[in-house]
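Pilot study result, target chain (322 residues):
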Amino acid sequence: MNTASPEAATGRVVLLTTSHRVAPGLLSWPAWQALRAADRVLCADAAHPQLPYLREAGIAVDEASPAAEDLVDLCAGGRTVVVVATAEGEPALTDGLARLAGSGRVAMPELELLPASYDLPGARLLDLVQVMDRIRVACPWSSRQTHKGLAKYGIEEAYELVEAIEDGDRDELREELGDVLLQVVFHARIAEEDPEAPFSVDDVAAGIVTKLIHRHPHVFGDETATTPEEVKEHWLRTKAEEKRRTSVTEGIPVHQPGLALAAKLASRARTAGLDVPVPQGEGIGYELLALAVRAESEGADPEAALRAAARAYRDAIRAAED
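Predicted structure:
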């Protein structure tokens, strides 16, 4: 603000921003105060989703897009003008106001940016759901996909995520997490169309929320867990109660890589307190099984260890080729 001019004479401009990810009409209390106290409320977008709710609340909104100079004139005499920003954020107007302020030739009103609604953590997931809805309808390839047809991509993306984690590449990790998330949202969107047992991404999220709360009684209930081992014990016990399983081996996918399968079986047995000798037999399979069980007991991931050794072998092959 130009200190040479009294604040009352130059007035005030409030740029009110809102999030499309929050239901229209749900504005902060400072935003409602600013709107009710304003001498004028302007909005360049006649279809702005907030306008019906503002008018219902008795706020008169003029559909106008004034230039920076015109807006300064509207504030003359100490008036307050609230500009309800469009989705683009009014860059032309803010740039114009910045040029006027930088010129030093204009007594500028007080300028305030007032966020009227905020994105909560996870709000961008709503964008992903909307984009997926549109792609499912409009894309010739996506509209024909099925759960079975997409299954191979889920496996590929999971492996690429693991590779990004092991490589320590943060940018690649963020991208691969997005690719895995896409698979979840894609399958959920396809599931909505099932004629007999449809479900949506909200049902998927609700299910995992319920599961997490139930399997963490030490966080959301009265039980106590002070070590990772106790947490795992809670998890397996509540999981067994939910699934009504009769064996610790139930629920282990047998089609996963062999070393990972062997380690998972060993982990379940150890956690359950079962002392099960490794079967003895001839052939490389039994030798690999024994190695996988030993690795798990020592806290190592045999699958990850083998991948690391295989990468070293790959580098040696490339060196030999050179």
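One observation from the pilot: Residues 1-8 have pLDDT under 50 and may be disordered. A full batch analysis is planned for the follow-on phase.
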